[in-house]
Amino acid sequence: MCDTLVALPNFTQNGGLIFAKNSDREPDEAQAIVHIPRKKYSEKFLKCTFISIPQIEETYEIVISKPFQMWGAEMGANEFGLVIGNEAVFTKVKIRKKNEGLTGMDLLRLALERTKNAGDALNCITELLEKYGQDACGGYKNKDFFYHNSFIIADYGEAFILETAGKSWASKKIEKFGSISNGLGITTDFDQVHLAEEKLIFPFNLIPKPDPFSFRDYFSDFLYTKIGRAKTRQSCSLNLVSGTHGKLNVKEAIGILQTHHLPDPEFDPKKTNTSSLCMHATGITNPSNTTGSMVAEIRKDKPSTIWLTGTSMPCLSLFIPVFFGTHSLEKIMAPGPKEDGSLWWQTEKLHRWICLDYQKRKSLIFDELNKIQSSFMAEEEKLLSTKATIQELEFFSNSCIEQVKDFYTRNIHLVSKKQS
Fold first, then answer.
1. 157 and 138 in contact (C-beta within 8 Å)?
2. Which residue(s) pair with 295 in the sheet?
3. Strand pairing partners for 12?
4. Backbone torsions φ then ψ of 50, nearest 5 degrees
5. Predicted local distance difference test score (pLDDT) of residue 420
6. Which CATH number fits domain 2-328: 3.60.60.10, 3.20.20.10, 3.40.50.10090, 3.40.50.20?
7. Which residues of 357-387 are buried (b: 16+ CB within 10 A; e: fewer)?
8. From 58, 83, 343, 354, which residue has the greatest number of CB atoms within 10 Å?
9. Between residues 202 and 192, which one has the greater pLDDT?
10. Helices then strands (H, E): number in the chain?
């Protein structure tokens, strides 16, 4: 399960576009935050997660958050201020399960690497979709987890929701703000629609197309969408954005990603269900954990800021500011499949320990965590107001990374003392 939201400049406090996403994956599926500079290629083909496709001559600079073992990404941005997030959606279209297509994460990264704006990214994804399809496993240890995808695609000037079912798709332009949460939502209100010859699962292949045509009503799988409480989470995120009355800022966007299905004093991760935006895995009916989070503020005349956790559970995480043209993310070790020295796995020790007695143990770190996060935001605002150089922004980002590492190192030691 995942949740993605966007607010256009006409609905934000500072007049930038704000994009936010929680990536919900299997609990042990560590997520890497990666900076990839602009590159030129002599190779003719590119190996994506499962298949190879023709490579292009040059790709753009990107910052992404990705499952450690995948080529594609759950969310990211590029040097031109294009941001994209994807969600699993469950449809009536039959999937062959041969891993002969592109994952939604592949499609996302390809669009970030190859296009400069939201309109071109929408075209890129749909063209790749029609050519290669999305018969590709999206699971980690669960090799039977196949699904289709929806996307929020945005730049400073415009944003779109793109929903897919096999090689069929529909898109809708966002006017002020929007969100997606693991369910098809475009009905008859699409701006564009493409219907491929899709083989539906029996008995859905016997159901005629609705008139007027509704993408959601024709393609959506009721059971998986309902179990995932997609409507509940989407309604929650939309209401929280709407409640800012056109003054959404980064702090509030982070707060939305940290939202649980119960008020904080009542919340217990062991009792989480799929209606939480900040997801905590509890078992077979709720197998997903938020393994990485991102908030981006895309500006027209100033550098954009990409805020990334590089850790699970945004309710217990610090968001690190990153800027294009810098190399700060090289200071963060990419995680592997097992516990290692990476930021992701080191913080996981603390996060999982806190969740055993959430309210009591969270109180040991929460005041300091909030103080550090507030200092990051205040310093970022100050640097942008004084037109800081890229070198100054990189120094600031590096400093934030060191403070985050220090915070977790000290508190992991505190955990050890409490356990002894």
1. no
2. 20, 307
3. 248
4. -120, -35
5. 43
6. 3.60.60.10
7. ebeebbeebeeebeebbeebbeebeebbeee
8. 83
9. 192
10. 10, 18
Which residue, among 58, 53, 56, 62, has the nearest Cα to 40 in the 3D structure?
Answer: 58
Q: Which residues contact 139 (CB under 8 A, 6 or more apart)?
A: 26, 145, 146
| The overall pTM is greater than 0.70 | yes
Q: Where are the domains of the chain?
A: 2-328
Separation CA 110–CA 128 (nearest Å):
9
Mean pLDDT of 265-280: 94
Q: Please compute the mean of the pLDDT values over residues 215-229 and round it to a whole number.
A: 89
Q: Is the peptide bond before 9 cis (omega within 30 degrees of 0)?
A: no
- Coil, strand or helix at 296: strand
For residue 41, the model assigns a pLDDT of 96
Minimal CA–CA distance to 393: which of 309, 312, 302? 302
pLDDT band at 405 (very low <50, low <70, confident <90, very high): very high
Is 47:185 a contact under the CB 8 Å cutoff?
no
Please give the pLDDT value at position 17: 98
At residue 208 the predicted structure's pLDDT band, cuts being 50, 70 and 90, is confident
* Active-site residue, 2 included: yes
For the chain, the average pLDDT equals 96
Q: Phi and psi dihedrals of 38, rounded to 5?
A: -60, 135
In a 3-state reduction of DSSP, which class is residue 18? strand
- For residues 216 and 186, give the distance between their C-alpha atoms in angstroms, rounded to a whole number: 6
Indicate the length of the chain as a whole number.
420
Q: How many CA atoms lie within 13 A of 348 on its CB side?
A: 24
Token duo for residue 75? 């969310």
Residue in the block written with tokens 């969600």? 87
Q: Which long-range contacts (CB under 8 A, 24 or more apart) does 233-236 make?
A: 233/1, 233/3, 233/181, 233/182, 233/274, 233/275, 233/276, 233/277, 234/3, 234/179, 234/180, 234/181, 234/183, 234/185, 236/275, 236/277
Closest C-alpha among 80, 141, 17 to residue 325: 80
Tens-place pLDDT, residues 155-168: 999 999 999 999 99
Closest C-alpha to 303, from 16, 8, 109, 60: 16
DSSP E strand stretches across 68-155: 75-78, 83-89, 148-154
Write down the catalytic residue from 2, 236, 315, 400.
2
Distance linking the first and last C-alpha atoms of the chain: 36
